[in-house]
Design goal:
The structure holds four protein chains of four kinds. Chain A is mainly α. Chain A is built from six helices and three strands. Chain B is α+β, with helices and mostly antiparallel strands. Classes of the chains: A mainly alpha, B alpha+beta, C mainly alpha, D mainly alpha. Chains in contact: A-B, A-C, A-D, B-C, C-D.
Chain lengths: 232, 326, 560, 91
Amino acid sequence: MKTAGAQALSTVRTAATRPRTARRPRVAEQFETAVQQRAAATLGMWVFIATETLFFGALFFAYAIARIQAPDDFAQASRHTNLVLGTANTAILLSSSLFMALSVRAAALGTRQAAVGFLVITAALGLSFTGVKLAEYALDYREHLVPLVDFAFDPRHARGALVFFGLYFATTGLHLVHLSIGIALVLGLAWRLLARRPGASAEHVAIAGLYWHFVDIVWIFLYPCLYLVSRA
Amino acid sequence: MSALALPPEASTIAAHVDHLLYAVVGVTAAVTLAIFATIIAFAIRYRAGSAAPRAEDVPAAQARARRRVEAAWTLVPLALFVAAFAWGARVYVERALPPSDATQLFVVAKQWTWKLQHPGGQREIDELHVARGQPVELVMTSEDVIHSFYVPAFRLKQDVLPGRYTQMWFTATETGRFHLFCAEYCGTDHSRMRGDIVVMEPEDFARWLEGHRGASGMAAQGEVLFREYGCSGCHATQPSAQPGANASVHAPSLAGLYGRPVPLADGSVVKADERYLRDSILLPDKEVAAGYEAIMPSFAGRIGEDEILELIVYIESLSDTKGRPQ
Amino acid sequence: MTEAVRAGDGGVLGERGELALHPPASYLEEGFTIRSWLTTRDHKRIAILYALSITLFFFIGGAAATLIRIELATPNGDLVSADTYNKLFTMHGVIMVWFFLIPSIPATLGNFLVPLMIGARDLAFPRLNLASWYIYVAGASFTVAAMILGGVDTGWTFYAPFSTLYSNTHVVWVLAGVFVVGFSSILTGLNFIVTIHTMRAPGLTWFRLPLFVWAQYATSAILVLATPVLAMTLVLVAVERLGGIGIFDPALGGDPLLFQHLFWFYSHPAVYIMVLPAMGVVSEIVACFARNPVFGYRTMAYAIIAIAMLGFLVWGHHMFVSGQSLYAGTVFSLLSFFVALPSAIKVFNWTATLWHGRITYEAPMLYALGFVGLFTIGGMTGLILAVLALDVHLTDTYFVVAHFHYIMVGGAVSAYLGGIHFWWPKITGRLYSDRWARFAAILLFFGFNATFFPQYLLGIAGMPRRYHEYAPEFQTLNVLSSGGAVLLALGYLLPLVYLSWSLVRGARAPANPWDATGLEWRTASPPPKRNFAAVPVVEGPPYAYRPSPAGIVRAREGTA
Amino acid sequence: MRGDRVSAYVWTWLGLLALLAASCASSFVPLGRLNAFVNVGIALAKALLVALVFMHLRRDRPIVRLVAVAGLAWLALLFGLSLADFLTRGP
């Protein structure tokens, strides 16, 4: 037991001797080592993903309860979504995740050119998803499926269908906002990697990758909830 | 006012709630005082500079003390909690299950008044007359936002929701006038959404009913509506009778429907209670009876909450299981 | 073992553990311009920014409360109209919950102390930390805008369908304000979780952490997991209000109980967001002034985690008469008793911490003991509300109002003030008048009880909450309550005066005025920008107040 | 991420596309309420693949895995305890 009436402590390392090796990623002032910094960044992104899980989760929950209230209306409404475009878009997004993962790997291995190339493909796939989605919105508009703006539906199912399409636009819209942020993030990262700017390391690519994959997972759940309620 | 400022105890369940309240308040107050006494005793005895002996090695003394007290002060409260839960749940369930001989009364809440109707057709606003000793079941709904039917003297409260029925029941034990409050915030005049429950001796209540008799009872009014809204065109109301005038339409007979299990088109079975009847009028496509087509039009937006209640009372009156006097 | 450092010497650790005679400039001296404050990334300065903002909102919310209490002195609505009254209690609730209580301890004391207590130079994401404050300001602006536009009358609970269809006030502005401020909480929580996980000083294992840090950690977990659900719920209210999409309103095909489930999934754990940090503060203070280790330290840490987790399982107890199913009500009641258990254990452990102590009664200790007393009453009455049949009578009456004010004001605000008094010398480098501070603590304790204890009786007597006018038989108790509120209001103004005074005339504070353990006391008061000149290494348990060498006791008496 | 092989990623991607096809096809088979469960099941499987392989959860630190699970676990609480009400309403 210590004699001092306080939490025993001593000092060994000083700020001056803190290991500042010539590793590429810069260590911010508050961190001791690059390892600590990377651990903090990864954990931070995962905590953010946990938050986002609950954010989208509450929306899915509202969807579930609304669907329990009006199962037939939801089934009818779902048949009016565009299955071909929806499925194609899912495939596009899944493929984008492949290239994102490849980019993270390339960056970790230090092959800068490959990492940049994969990032660009990822962003391009993200952009095509956005394009298809917007085209789909245009078709929805033509079929009078946009609540508030122009909505007409079989009156027997209109009540639940309005809720369905309200949720359809809320969920896909929110997803699209997240995806757009992801595209901006990925393109910015690609540019900075290419120009050898600071703020673009393998670590940054890995963190952006986590975000990208999460947005992908959200869509994985949206797809059956919106497009596949009832096709039989 | 009684001890604890309780309002008068005027229903059968109020007595049960009060026993529970005295017991729980008694125990929690005793424990609270014991904690405070201990804190004050320690605060004085172990003030800096006092002569009270202290352990040489306090962490070790704490560790020894923990072994003695920790299990006790975890398990004893736990046991008390489970007991309080069980007792509370028993009275809660009692509150939820009305006796079979209860008279049904109907409540429609609306910003910021209570509309009440007796099965005999007597209507009241912000006032409800009931007989002492007679079990009463309230079937309640709201025309706008959420309200809450609260009678402190009965120790009862139930939120009144738009779009569905909630129930509560009581048997008044004391005559007199008792407060009725809206307890769920409902907008500007929430605090004025108050009324009175008037409990009368059964014979006085019978006289009151007689004196306030409307043109006809709820079931009779429902029968009129049944024709006016065209329900009788398709639905039969006599057990063995032919379907309605519009014989080409295949619609389920309503005779003896109330209280019965109804097989639905999707294979499930529901009980034909107030909720089912209400939803069938407003959302006919939601639960279609097996063997029938979903051809009934919805009456949502065309029919008031009190009219729906009258129709329901009428349909109930077609059933033996819970026939209502007209 | 390496060299140990003596506490209470008033010295500061230098580069290699020696006492430095000329400590580095404090964080307050790093810049004096407004710009230096508004662009700072120093967790300590951000804590000050938060402290100023929430103090402003505390007094705005308090002013609303004062008007409410004056109005309720008579049974008739003679001071303000019914609409104004409804807007007042809505504003009081919204401001006190989201713009004062939720950020109170985490964003001020937590922001200031977590890095200091774990021996770090800053939080893991300093820029994000500053962003949190700006997000708070943005959310506050929306809310203030709603107030200026004419206010909102939904109550802080925003129950649908009143909020989605029937209220004619500026609901969407307040929804936006609360939505935005939620992200401020989330980012603070995220920052704390990552910081506590990755940036503890060498040797500072989990079970050497001060309970304050444990409490911040658990609180952060709640912030991160519950707040997004509230955010989405508010979005759905706005969608239904603006777009007529029937999520909650049955007239459009929605379910009003869905709103209540989503809302309380956040708002019940939110109570623990307010009270867990308070428990952390009280553990620090009680141990320090009893000169004892916290009784059952590990149990206390586990209890914090248990409360945070079980707190998520009990939201349905706000809905016993809402039309929720009988089965769900019963389940939620049983679970509610389970969350009471760790809270009870904490009260027992604080009491036992006094045992064999050498207790002194400076202002922070008075606030802490006030917390224990008021929290106990609030907790016990919470048990009464968890009993199903009793809740049927008491819910939505003044009993509930009294109960949650005992927890949030008697509990959380007392602890917040206790913490401010405890760490004031560390934060500002100044000593305040202990005499005035003790007077304020005692005044607040009695003022609080005078205000809120009568409300328990009002609730039992059956007076519903949110009533602008009430039946005449409730007047006596209401007058008592309003009278107490005058004392309470005076009590809250006092610290504002003497603490401000200390900034001008207060004596310079030594590094460790209370002879407390914990790393935050091992650096100068106020601390330098980077907190520690050298990275501290921890080699022992927290709260090592005993065995207490005679020298330290003497030093304490010298400073008193 | 360094240690992963490209082929592992490509196989995962092919698996995801196969699951997508299965999900889409299954919705044309009339299974009644079972359709919804099949759909959610397949979505869970896809999400798990992405999380474990692309997001490297299978080899990340325990705390990271704990955080990832916490998000889902709390969501399950929201669904589970609320459904305790929604599914037991009625008489």
